[in-house]
Amino acid sequence: MTNSWTDIRNTDLVVIMGGNAAEAHPCGFKWVTEAKANRGARLIVIDPRFTRSASVSDFYAPIRQGTDIAFLLGLINYCMQNDKVQWPYVKSFTNATYVVKDGFAYQDGLFTGYDESKRDYDRSTWEYDIGPDGFAVVDETLQNPRCVWNMLKSHVASYTPEMVERICGTPREKFLKVAQMISECSVPTKTMTSMYALGWTQHSKGSQNIRAMAMLQLILGNIGVRGGGMNALRGHSNIQGLTDVGLMSNLLPGYLNIPVEKETDFTTYMSSRTFKPLRPDQTSYWQNYKKFFVSFQKAMWGSAATAENDFAYQYLPKLDVPAYDVLRIFEMMYRGQVNGYVCQGFNPLLAFPNRKKITESLSKLKWLVTIDPLDTETSRFWENHGEYNDVNSATIQTEVIQLPSTCFAEDNGSLTNSGRWLQWHWAGGTPPGEAKRDNWIMAQIFRRLRALYEKEGGPFPDPILNLTWNYQNPDEPTADELAKEINGYAVETLYDPADPTKVLLEKGKQVVNFSVLRDDGTTASGCWIYSGCYNEAGNNMARRDNTDPDDTGAYLNWTFAWPLNRRILYNRASADLQGNPWDPSRKLIAWDGSKWSGYDVPDIAPTAKPDVVGPFIMNQEGTARLFARGLMRDGPFPVHYEPFEAPIANVIAPKIRGNPVARIFQDDVAQFATSEEFPYAATSYRLTEHFHYWTKHNRVNAVLQPEFFVEISEQLAAEKGITPGSWVRVWSKRGEVKAKAVVTKRIKPLMCDGKKVHVVGIPLHWGFMGQARKGWGPNSLTPFVGDANIETPEYKAFLVNIESTTPPATV
Amino acid sequence: MEPSPHTAQSNPPVAATTSNLTEKDLIRRSASTVPPPARQLEPVAKLIDVSKCIGCKACQSACIEWNDTQPAIETNVGVYENPHDLTPEMFTLMRFNEWDNPQTGNLEWLIRKDGCMHCADPGCLKACPAPGAIVQYSNGIVDFVHENCIGCGYCIKGCPFNIPRISKVDHTAYKCTLCSDRVAVGQGPACAKACPTHSISFGTKEDMKALADSRIKDLKSRGYENAGLYDPPGVGGTHVMYVLHHNDQPEIYSGLPKNPRISPVVNAWKGMTKYLGFAAMGLAAAAGVLHSTLVGPNRVTREDEDEAEKLVKESV
Amino acid sequence: MPVKDIEEGDAIEPGPPVVVDRYTGGARINHWVTAICLILLALSGLALFHPWLFFLSGLFGGGQNTRAIHPWIGVVLFFSFAGLFIRFWRANLPAQVDKDWLTHADDLLAGREERMPEVGKYNAGQKAIFWSMATLIIVLIFSGFVIWDQYFADWTTIPQKRVAVLVHSLAAVVIICVWIIHVYAAIWVRGTIPAMTHGSVTGGWAWRHHRLWLKELAERHRFKKPEAPAE
């Protein structure tokens, strides 16, 4: 989220698209109801299904799953055509005026530089025209046909309301109603918030779905303001924390990168990370990259990380592929290239696409360790449960070791919510049975491994042997100890660079925040963006003061938000070029002639002049990007691509199947179906009664939604002779499930490019373990294909067939 | 006495508090009479704003947890309601109705939290034959007292909303208590506390009516011309009220009765029949006594015996 | 006179004194089972009928037991009365004389029985009691099933149950009234009770109240041994 949950109450218009906040985020959704009840805010829901969110909306428009980009580019086109643009914002705070390098072009669904054999682009032309001064060339008059604004205008021109209807199945008048409501927010005194979730991310072009809405929000001037923003509703209570602390194969904590194998030394690694400003006087905050990186290395390896050894740069692994994401790991497992798999708090058998492939992959492991408070399906993948898990246990040789762990309520620690708040929690109970805290389990594994390396050596034991492990009880580091390490501390006494006699921070003290981190090895910080969470003032995540001066929704003394306790990112953009709020009733920060101050922590240097320094300080431009340069693998502008399994061909570029640079594995291509074989467009989703595959283990949740079902329209039910509550078989090219049929008015067939498209909705909460009735999930059916940029699987759009069937045999 | 809470969302007292709902606060007690209470508790109400409800069933979950009930894990029968109906183990239930609005042509998914309405004129209490099995406090809460319940099911017949359910385990009637045990110590009902969208509010009936007014105004601004408060006068008003977008058609909300009142059949049964019945039985007995006094016994005479003997002799 | 007026076991013991056997042992047992059931039903039913009488539930071990046992007694009553019905229905069929008898009912009540027409085994009043009981028991058992929620809750709707409970209570009131009349008549007409305790009445009683019946017994030589052989 650029903003926070509590800020949503400040909005005038909520757009829920690519998510179903009322269903999947009911507690956060309260802020929508607050905005509606107290500000008269309106709610628009755009979804293939009339969801629980839609049930409380002011306007609902249907859309075919996987066509969001066409809809969003249609909205951008509408705003551009009808002059519904927050012009001063767009001109000053985005790269609309920047001139694009010659050679860049777009045609028939592809940008310049596509190499079909590599399924990748040469992105060298996706760049600005750089002037002789070394800065990007801009045209303030927007006359240059190659300036970003004009390039975008022509790029979106074909996404007319008629085209949107043809692709998305959204009736033209409904699209226009949405466009009209949204475009009203182009005035500075009206804001719209975008609430989205996995309905946008779980596509082969998920990142571009989000970019398209971000571009629209920039055009409307809604980023950085109260009640605005791009608000990703995270799918777990701590999934924001997962990415923040770098639990990705290609990331280090705080969105630093794991080196790739070409970056053989620290100098090479840093050479592509200088982040020189692209416009004069801009902040380009990533120029501090080295400080954060070195401080991380010091937190990891302490005195073993020295200037002489490039702060232990060589201790880091070097990636030979872009990322070892979940799809790649299971592809490798499937090919017999993985021996062991440690599965901590994860249930891949149900959570990953193409369950048959997952089962076969796990069966090829030598060993599998599961660390989980629950008896997960993954732990029991080898066990025959009749139709529900029809495996031959005798042929599976994988040794499974189940380590029972605690759940969040049995441990201290912090959870990072969607609004980037690090909220400390305290154990509310003692772990049952043999359950152990994850910290204890990890410490045991680490200490035993280190003992082995100590004894046996090996080619390069240093990263293990030198790992900092200064915990009071080395067998079980506490959450407080880890949090302090993450915050960071002075490795040596820090002196003021301007006055070397002045001590800024004594050795061993906690740093106040990341602004004091240094690149000379005198500071350590485990995750720079979290720095400030646990400093000398104490555990700021444990703060529970809910005072909120002038009811802005900031709640600065409630827990700690990264970065620097800032609640709304880019909040400098809430004020104009003179530093006055665009909307005085929605002031966040303002310039008083010498400095910035206000209700939130300014997202700009306090003394940065408003007419000089741009608000998007993390970007080298200082402005936000309507044109993303070469930073997205699949294009600087979003393009509508169909899902890999789509009921119709791509209207924009009929020859292109799926996203042309989405990552696919060759064996899986053969398992993509056509609409001739599998005529119905399926999508998967959550229900509010359950949380993933966890709560089916809880009796109360099992009572509230006991049994697996699929949802279909009355029309499809009539066509297929399916009666409500009867058993149906749903199958894709990769597998089949049996479910109860919920026949509903909430799903209606869509007319797309002249073809009637039936939607089949498949909720995801059942398996063969737990209290609820045994069932399947959608991932017996979903395709094994990932987003072009972040490899998130395409769970939300695939093809199936459906028919009436008999109940599964009881087990 | 603890003041009544004004909202379930406000922070409730944390210190131990004595219950403010005592025998002395009863204004009605089934099959018995109670003296008028010395004090009048502030009337409370739960306001369910259907227009804010997302059907998440957190209220059901909280109700199960607080009352420690064990509803069965049922099946899916093609709808979202689970359990499929109110049960002795499930005192509240989200009911879902897919309604095509003929005026706008739009689908509306009407989700209503069903449960006891805590009528000011409670039909269950009226019908109950067991002294003290159903009580009504001066704050409006209608509660079942299980040790006095005989399981006859008359409350089911008396209720205009089809709420009470008889347990097959202990043969007593169950329904929402409005969390009388929580309200008595200054807390709001569990469902209201759990509701994430503040669709369920709890406080004084007056405050809830004022809150409803503001909600109705908002709904009217969104084109719901018939938005209104459901506080049916036929049962004397209720202490659970709904804000409905279509207050002119409550029946579209999964059969919420348009003008609920205690059935005339029940009124006849619990009213006239009793008096007529006693009168009839009394009259019959009195007539006997009177007749016996006035006319005296009908005795067989000597002549009768002789006639009989004569007849027998002749026949033999 | 049709034979239907004589029931199994009816016979004259020529005496002297003349004694007439009116009810067999089986009939008497059957009657008293029915009577006890009816009394228990009235007591338990009245306990639920009005709070003033709820104390009666104490006779059955409390309200829960009263509620549980009442319908079962009803079932016993139903079958028990069915036995009586099979025994007595023929003799209770309407006869020509009933009309005449009814027109003189005021004479009977006024103690001028000599003005009454001669009747068979049952007079019109007794027949009315019999058929009222039969009808009311049918009504009660059916309305009772509708409100027997422990087993049949799902068989009917709540509005149907409401009607059933009203009908059940009204029928109960009526049957209690009928019962009062029945009992009073048995007491008022002295010499009646032995018919159901010992099975027989005096010849005078039969002559006075059921002369046709007595005459028919005599005509048909329904005499009890050894005084006279049965035909």
UniProtKB/TrEMBL annotation, chain B:
Record-level Gene Ontology MF annotations: formate dehydrogenase (NAD+) activity
Broad class of enzyme this protein falls into: oxidoreductase
Polar residues bias: start-end ranges: 1-21
Keyword Electron transport: yes
Record region (Disordered): 1-37
Pfam families, per the entry: Fer4_11, Form-deh_trans
SUPFAM superfamilies, per the entry: 4Fe-4S ferredoxins
Compartments it resides in: Cell membrane
EC number per UniProt: 1.17.1.9
The 4Fe-4S ferredoxin-type domain, residue ranges: 44-63, 107-139, 140-169
Entry keyword set: 4Fe-4S, Cell membrane, Electron transport, Iron, Iron-sulfur, Membrane, Metal-binding, Oxidoreductase, Repeat, Transmembrane, Transport
Protein name: Formate dehydrogenase subunit beta
UniProtKB/TrEMBL annotation, chain C:
UniProt entry keywords in alphabetical sequence: Cell membrane, Electron transport, Heme, Iron, Membrane, Metal-binding, Oxidoreductase, Transmembrane, Transmembrane helix, Transport
Main localisation: membrane
Single GO MF annotation: formate dehydrogenase (NAD+) activity
Family annotation (SUPFAM superfamilies): Transmembrane di-heme cytochromes
Compartment(s): Cell membrane
One Pfam family it belongs to: Ni_hydr_CYTB
InterPro entries: Cyt_b561_bac/Ni-Hgenase (IPR011577), Di-haem_cyt_TM (IPR016174), FDH_cytochrome_b556_subunit (IPR051817), Formate_DH_gsu (IPR006471)
tRNA-binding in keyword set: no
Residues that span the membrane, as ranges: 32-49, 69-89, 128-148, 168-189
Organism domain of life: Bacteria
Protein name: Formate dehydrogenase subunit gamma
Homology family: Belongs to the formate dehydrogenase gamma subunit family.
Domain annotation Cytochrome b561 bacterial/Ni-hydrogenase: ranges: 22-199
Enzyme Commission no: 1.17.1.9
Presence of the UniProt keyword Manganese in the record: no
